[in-house]
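Build the 3D complex.
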Amino acid sequence: MNAPNRNPPPAVGAGLPHESAHLHVTGRATYVDDIPVPAGTLHAALGLSNIAHGRIKRLDLSAVRTAPGVRAVITADDIPGENDCGPVKHDDPILCDGEILFHGQPLFAVAADSHELARKAARLARVEVTPLPALLSAEAAAEAESWVLPPVEVSRGDAVAALETAPHRLRGEVELGGQEHFYLEGQIACAIPLEDETMRVLTSTQHPTEMQHMVARALGWRVHQVTAECRRMGGGFGGKESQSAQIACVAAVLAQRCGRPVKLRLDRDDDMCITGKRHDFHIEYDVGFEDAGRIAGLKLLLASRCGFSADLSGPVNDRAIFHADNAYYLDAVSILSLRGRTHTVSNTAFRGFGGPQGMFAIETVIDDIARHLGLDPLAVRQANFYSDSAGSERNVTHYGMKVEDNIIHPLVAQLAADAHYAERRAAIDAFNASSPLLKKGLALTPVKFGISFTATFYNQAGALVHVYNDGTVLVSHGGTEMGQGLYTKIRQIVAEELGLPIEDVRLSSTDTSRVPNTSATAASSGTDLNGKAAQAACQAIRRRIAGFVAERLGVSDEVVIFAAGMVSAPGFDATFADVVADAYRARVQLWDAGFYKTPKIHYDPVTMQGRPFYYFSYGAALAEVAIDTLTGENRVLRVDILHDVGRSINPAIDIGQIEGGFIQGMGWLTTEELVYQPDGPQAGRLATHAPSTYKIPAVSDLPPVFNVRLFDNANVEDSIHRSKAVGEPPLMLAFSVFFALRDAVAAALGPGARPQLDAPATPEAILRALHGGRL
Amino acid sequence: MSERSIQFYFRGEIRQIADAPPTRTVLQFLREDAHATGTKEGCAEGDCGACTVVLGESIGGELQLRAVNACIQFLPTLDGKALFTVEDLAGINGLGITGLLHPVQQALVDAHASQCGFCTPGFAMSLFALYENNPECPDKAAVCDALSGNLCRCTGYRPIVDAVPAAYEQARVGLDRPEILAALAPLAALPPLDYRATGQRFLAPRNLAELADARLAAPDARLLAGGTDVGLWVTKQLRELGDLIYVGAVTELKTIRIDTDGLYIGAGASLTDAFDALTGFEPAWTELARRFASTPVRNAGTLGGNVANGSPIGDSMPGLIAMGAQIVLQRGERVRRLALEDFYLAYQKTALEAGEFVLGLQIPPQPAERRFRTWKIAKRIDQDISAVCGAFALSVMDGVVDEARIAFGGMAATPLRARATEKFLVGKLWSQTTVAAAADVLAHEYTPLDDMRASAAYRRQTAAGLLQRLWLEDGAGGAPTRLSELEVLP
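Done.
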């Protein structure tokens, strides 16, 4: 075979810097707002509602229209195509269609000569509304049976019977807050009208194809009239999967109307008020279990606040159901998932995509079982793990998928040993016995996360690889770069395949005119899908070049080797550049497209049974924390992580994803609190709409000791270079922090106590838990 | 004063600005006028640091370099100063010509410290200021302090912190300070800035007499100091501010001195300088000083501004009130002093008269037996607005409370003394029983609000908790009382 020589230096497996790192640090990396705009570009702003639910009686925009610098003002009536940007259901108006559905909903849009003038003009509208009653929480929606999508129930066995016969039984409930993405680069799009009814949209998005489709739909055009392009995002985290569409559509409609380029860049506060977030959940459980803590039967209620529209709430809540087992075998189980329609922003994808919420539920159940029985929570976790023996019945999930790659037993055992779980547990007990004011806590929590889009058709990707006749390579693919290092990994995969130094391979922006019909860069799947597609394209090119060389030399193409920028065969050694120059003159095709679809997966969305995931990623984290029992203030003292990324394509990037995901998850569960005004004239207004009031982790939240290691484990499935997806799974490692805080509260409360600790575990939530659930 | 343009050092030369509105921000100037897009807008309120730039100022013949947030810094405040952005780093010691990165940039690359990269220029500039200001590698605490105003949503910070020692392992480079000072020197000889554009006036007197005159002549003009709050009125509320009198060029307002009257801090002293002095005067300020806003906000903001603003959640006032600080006010030639607690009349209403301005703060010498503590409680360690900020100054003589001054922020419409608790404590035995009873008095003394930072119940409970912490720190068995001091074993 003409396989690439791995010696030396292999591109795959090397901890190379991010392909844009030198641009990031110098400020030369261009984001949408940094791209020089054509002369005459206008700047847009949105006018927002200041009520959660109501009907517009009168929308007087005369002052807006006559404000300095204003060139155009549009409402829903001015959208030439469909007034909708919903990714699944068509229930997501681009601009309010008469009924205001949440506080901060865009009612109209302005284009003006500058960003500042547009923002100023947008505040001059006079809006008269008839207020209507607003549903603001998941519980309120459930009570009113207000759904964006019908409830879903998944069950196996007879949970009710198991609950009744189990030796122990507990009931509980917990609130789990949402999370703002807080990508550092806010939502932005710049729409440039071109000749013959076409439009180019520069957009900060995880899903260029969907932006292309939505813009075409809003303009009443066909898809090939629109091009969407994204070189990089300043962070996405799920918040730019579907939610970037509204921005792109408004910019495009204004651009079409004015015949001039229009840029819409949201101010941070507007961004936080308008765009959806991680779903918050109300969780209730009823569990029966054995003396050793093994679960016999479980009834689980997962009620989420979806907001005013469906957006991606269907698959998000499905994934919560799929992950309600985490790493645990649930024998008799019944899960009811409620998708509440509320008068708040439409909650959306966020790193983990519902998985974290499902996993949080079962971790709460396990922790309560341990506290009830007076057992170490780690022992109860281990007692419930999926079996690691292939023949066991205890390795089939509640959705009918066999867990074939289970490594949670050795992974957790190794972490517990390396990080001295038992010794530290004893040391903490001793500390707590002599410290009345400060209490420490410890928790080791596992992660098992399913990899693949649950919508099976999404699991496809394309790539376009150009080898130019000087031997340099330009790669396009369907994935987007949001900082996760996808472009870097693709570059490594291509360099590896063609035996080239990394510098000879460049990545172009992601552009729907080069690779069509792309899936969102989401579900941790970017490298799995696009890496395989790029590899396939390279293999086709390499085959042709090898054939060309072999024919000239009169040898078999199997002996032609591509390595270190050279093409070699017995008695032949030439640079890749020279060989491709010759091949070009011999009219050999030096570019190709690659395509990939994930094998093995299938899933019936009606019964919710099948194999929705190609494989699972695993990990575990051990966190040690301390709390101040007078104030609820807390501190993470040490974190140890062992995480499975299969065979790493880039260990530096993978470590970065693990650390970053962990800290982001920690923020979700500790300091990041979304507060909506509960009542009064401003009911439903997001009170925490800026970084001054919404607190993501800052540098001092970095645990003073933070040990992160990769678990040595090749993927059993034929993934790209046997690697595993890493984008989302590490977020859930942060459960260790939350349950360590719960452990510290339990230490303060005394034996047998099940702390009523809601997430996020702010100082106030901790103090509340210390006082039995209320202050 | 005669009208003139804004002049500052930028990209190796003096840049003149004659037509920008006085409230145009440095970030708008960079991105929209100078088309220098390396500096990013993340929040436009000084909370994320993506816009961090470094300002250079000639102070006593030395070039002082400080990181600030460009998004809330008005362009005229650059007058007479030097502005450095991420694009400037390549020019240092000719690095860019040879294709090299500045050591802090190279170290960030090597440490894999950027992911999406949007926050990275801001981090690079905070680290650049740290690097220029420290010939030797600072410890991790100092690094975290320098980065307290920079948010990163991707990395989790570990590689960014790790990059600092690595930057110091590379060959040292540095700004050509004499050249910059020489370029700034002629600007100091210009008349004070009197800048007019778009119907607005920006006046920057250089001495107290000029300031007093200007203030009397235009009592309705907006006084501007660091702009770390006023900046948001423009970027978030889109307010028109009218004429502005900038106090930042008045050298006498930056006076800091310790003498027999105690510690005096001029109203124009930056929070950075003010807290340096305060922590030197009373080390118990250290933790609060570190947690007060962030490094760039402390570099731009002033103690006088924090106090004059009169926010109920300002973190400096409880401690200053507990220490018996007086606020010094000037109107024309008249100077008067008020106990700081008497300066606050109602929500955002102070005793400041028309034409009057804050001259400084006088903190009297503290009795040796007085124990002082000030703490803030917030969701996050770095740069967070307090739910509760409390301060205690207690003198105990022969086991009996002789004097108590207790003040809180976040508990009422203004910073407010806990007079009932003080009264309860004085004359009582300093004991567990007294503290428990006093904590109960304290918990009921205020009627705080429920808001997004905390509930009223939490505020009451923790205010009382802080009094108990004070007692426990006084030596109740030596058990640990501070999370920040817990030892961590690797």
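The longest strand of chain A covers residues 438-451.
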